[in-house]
Recover the amino acids of this structure.
């Protein structure tokens, strides 16, 4: 099983999954939902995961028999039952101990890679404030908020089980979950799992988790297509032999795959979860080079200038040159060049400025110039006619690079022009 990003990219199955998640994070982040579990806070801040928290809460104030029963429940993985019993014994005092267990320093957020990703939603079952600091501009919500707030299109950080910032919002046991998951919130979760792609990070994905039933439901009724799975980053410890390790990984991934969750497994040796950080860093959109950024800056400045009436009085680089220059810059990238992504992001920002400045006159001028440019370039890149035999080999017609690359900018300008009429 792969243990490095390079091995992931070489793996026949996992390479496609990695690429799919990266493309979502880079090109369509609004369609990506990050689902953050306790393993995330454990890795970045050393906070307790679920079983460790339950052990902390099972202190000397509990009778010997009760403590022995709770320890047995934790050891056998029945965490929700253990939490139910602890809540019944400790009462409201347990919330104070939970809040004390999840205090973190604000500097932790500065080293977390996902701060460079802008998903449409971030969902977490964690009580801590790490994600509040990673996404300070996101609207902070929990299932108690009105459904219109939860369904809004603004970026949201939803604390499924509450937050230490609001101790009365914290839920620990099954009965509290049942009260928290209202019909309206269930609709939201169904919408989320049907219409966005969820990336689970540090989440246990146990069958008993309340949200798992919604994923199973959508899969069973065919409302989540097989070619649009959710994804989960899955750590695995080494077993006695490589065969045992691979079998455990395969069994777990097959079980999740049956309900529409594609596994992204990695191996953990001696508690080393470094691949966790490597994977999340690979989701950061690539940075454009300074030359491209400089070109865009020049264009933004030129946008506010007016086109001079005579060729002699026109500047070397004026607003009338923006369209063709954008087009040439776009074509200069190779087909799979990752720098295209930030370039297109900058162009999107620039096109927004065009609309705000109401410079549709420029758009029409660019359309005409690009059409001339395309005609000239296509005359110099004539493809072989369809069906022409060369050396006895039937060649199929392939679109030229010009034809493939013209779509983005030309069609954007064309659309802007139509909207202005």
């Amino acid at each position: 099983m792969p243990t490095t990003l390079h091995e992931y990219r070489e793996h026949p199955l996992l390479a496609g999954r990695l690429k799919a998640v990266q493309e979502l994070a880079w090109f369509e982040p609004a369609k990506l939902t990050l689902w953050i579990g306790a393993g995330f806070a454990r890795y970045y801040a050393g906070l307790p995961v679920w079983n460790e928290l339950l052990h902390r809460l099972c202190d000397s104030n509990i009778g010997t028999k009760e403590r022995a029963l709770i320890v047995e429940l934790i050891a056998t993985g029945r965490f929700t039952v253990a939490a139910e019993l602890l809540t019944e014994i400790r009462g409201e005092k347990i919330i104070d101990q939970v809040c004390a267990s999840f205090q973190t320093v604000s500097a932790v957020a500065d080293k977390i890679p996902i701060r460079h990703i802008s998903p449409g939603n971030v969902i977490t079952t964690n009580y801590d404030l790490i994600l509040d600091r990673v996404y300070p501009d996101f609207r902070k919500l929990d299932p108690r908020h009105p459904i219109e707030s939860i369904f809004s299109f603004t970026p949201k950080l939803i604390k499924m089980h509450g937050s230490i910032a609001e101790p009365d919002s914290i839920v620990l046991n099954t009965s509290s979950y049942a009260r928290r998951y209202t019909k309206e919130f269930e609709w939201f979760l169904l919408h989320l799992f049907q219409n966005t792609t969820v990336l689970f990070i540090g989440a246990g994905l146990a069958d008993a988790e309340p949200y798992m039933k919604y994923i199973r439901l959508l899969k069973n009724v065919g409302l989540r297509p097989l070619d649009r799975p959710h994804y989960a980053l899955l750590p695995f410890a080494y077993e006695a032999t490589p065969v045992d390790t691979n079998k455990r990984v395969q069994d777990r991934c097959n079980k999740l795959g049956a309900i529409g969750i594609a596994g992204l497994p990695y191996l953990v040796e001696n508690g080393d979860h470094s691949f966790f950080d490597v994977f999340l860093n690979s989701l950061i959109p690539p940075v454009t080079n300074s030359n491209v950024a400089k070109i865009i800056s020049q264009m933004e400045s030129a946008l506010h200038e007016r086109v001079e009436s005579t060729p002699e009085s026109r500047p070397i680089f004026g607003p009338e040159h923006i369209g063709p220059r954008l087009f040439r810059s776009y074509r200069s990238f190779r087909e799979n060049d990752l720098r295209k992504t930030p370039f297109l992001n900058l162009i999107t920002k620039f096109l927004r400025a065009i609309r705000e400045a109401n410079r549709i006159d420029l758009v029409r001028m660019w359309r005409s110039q690009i059409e001339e440019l395309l005609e000239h370039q296509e005359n110099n890149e004539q493809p072989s006619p369809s069906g022409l035999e060369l050396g006895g080999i039937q060649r199929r017609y392939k679109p030229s690079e010009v034809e493939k690359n013209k779509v983005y900018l030309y069609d954007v300008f064309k659309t802007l022009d139509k909207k202005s009429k």
